[in-house]
Amino acid sequence: MKYPSLLLSSLLLVLAGCGGGGGGSGSGNSATANNGTGSTANGSTAAGSSTANGTTLGTTLTANTQAGQTMTCQAPSSASAAAGSALISADTPSADATRMFASGSTFQLAFTTNAPSADKVNWTVSDQLGNVAASGSFPVASGPVTSTLSCTSTLAGYFATAATLAANGGQLPEAGTRPTGIATFGVLPNLSGVVPAVTYAHQDEHRFGMQGENDNGPLLADLGISSTIDNRQLSTMEPNAANTFNPAANNLDPFYTSGQVMRLIRLDGIPAWASPTGAFEDDTNPPTSLSYYQNYMSRVGTESNTIRTTYFPNQSNNYYQVTWEPNQFWNDTDANFVALYQSVYQGIHSTDPHAVVMGPTDAFPSLTTTRLQRIASLGFGNYIDGISTHGYYDAGTSPSHPPERLATDPSPANAANALMNEIRNLRAEMVADYKPGMKLFQTEVGISYDLGSSYGPNYPTGNILYAQAAVVARTHIILLGEGVDQTYVFYGADYPGEVGYGTFFDLADAQGAFGATNISPKPAAMAVSALTHVLDGTNTLGPVNGTPSGVYAYSFQQLGNGSVITALWTHNNNVWSASTGFSATYSVPYSLAVDAPGTSGTVKVIDMMGNPLSMSYTNGTLTLNLTEAPVYVVSNNATVAKANVTTPAGYVAN
């Protein structure tokens, strides 16, 4: 539902502890990521080395510091703080309220203390695996004091600050849905020179949308989001009476007038006055008058065509989603379902020459497939231009229920419910019974915390947050790699009623709140940012052929016949559970063909958080050690890549 509205061994980023300054003297100090021995995810220490052809590259930051990827914080400045402060707290405030920062920019790391006596703050900044990126200490006077460090980072990703007072103890307090002990922020990837820029012939060649942050332009830009859902339901535009929606009036949310974020136009929802039930209904039945509904949709088409030509002149089409999870809401007959679509289709197309009417948007791709099969003979294909679905695939999409969980099940019936197989079956049905070349949009899938969990001072743990990020990234890679044209991330910040779907913490509300503005990123948000920075502006080539059981690989090519990008990871149910932990160290070797046999050279490999590294290949093959965190390989020989994939059924590249 969701109704309101690396550790790649060959790219291992174990961030070395940073040198702290003189805590007792008050003299200038700094904390900088260095390339000595580093703390691994489980707390042991390890030194690493760089090798050419894919054996373990290392467990220190050496490779990344050589590439200039570091985090540095300068000595703090101090000022008095408000009375009544907590014993110790921390924040990374940002002008745009995202707590995400551009690579290399200066940001403030502020600690507020209320020590009963003069003391010293010991602090660390760690990544999604608990590896220390920066650390240090500094003295503080008694009473309420704010000490602010100026920091910069060219290391990308999620970071969690922790701090305590040397003499008086304490830890960072719980805040909203964020647990005790951390304050989080993100650093955006800088992939210029790594992932070539692309030229979009049409704005709707972008591939990523999102629910939950519709008017938050800075956040959407940081995450690489190009589309959100804009409500044009009859229940929204005419809640109280007929003929009150005027398409010539200015009904548009001003946020969209920048033309930066496109609209997916949502149409489901019947107000009480137009419903046969006498109450609001989310398309449980057709409205009392389908002819009036068609008239209303013609007005929506008129308005949307004007909006597109005015604010989105480079967008080739308007996209309309007619129903929303009818598996949950629709209570009427299949014939009436088709009649509903007929009225919408004819109304929209009468006034919008660039309309793409989409549905049916069941919760699981498999449910969408079943519905399409069942109603094809009723002429449903005459009233639809594209297919939309939600992307849920399991009884609870969560760290413990990743999209590959059933892929290796010995029962074909069970394996069919793995996400990749659900999308393959959906595309096969589109080819069998519907128009050729139809677009396929996935307009909602989120990864919550495990079923039965609840927010608290010790939940979620860092391991759960890491696992959520990995599963979020893998889910959207699978969707795109199996031939989804656009995929929508769910959700912005945590909200009430369902635990953990947010990609951001709500820092103000213990159970989350819709429209939260005081937020900070989870690892999932920064994994999304890396994902979009790498894969937006691509066409799908498809799943890589011949991968061994438990290895997943999908290839893409940038628009304009550009670079090839292959996303890869492994998954093993035996090392991935809430009871034993979600492994960040399990790995398997895999060799990827990136060039012609007999050739050698280098490619770029990017980790789940967007940190790039050059790696060498020989005989046309790059050898990697894959973990549960996906990585992206940027290469140039498209001929080799295309010969090594299976194009999704019916997929048409831009």
Question: Short summary of the structure?
Answer:
GO terms for molecular function: hydrolase activity, hydrolyzing O-glycosyl compounds. InterPro entries: GH, Glycosyl_Hydrolase_39. The protein is of the alpha+beta class and 654 residues long.
What would you say this structure looks like, in words?
There is one protein chain. With 654 residues, the chain is α+β, with helices and mostly antiparallel strands. Among the domains are: 9-187, Immunoglobulin-like (Sandwich), CATH 2.60.40.10; 226-361, no CATH class. It has twelve helices and 33 strands. The strands form eight sheets. An eight-stranded parallel β-sheet has the order 14-21-20-19-18-17-16-15. Helix 4 (290-311) links the parallel strand 16 (262-266) and strand 17. Helix 7 (365-375) runs parallel beside helix 9 and helix 10 runs parallel beside helix 11. The protein is globular. The two termini are 31 Å apart. The model is unreliable at 2-64 (pLDDT under 50).
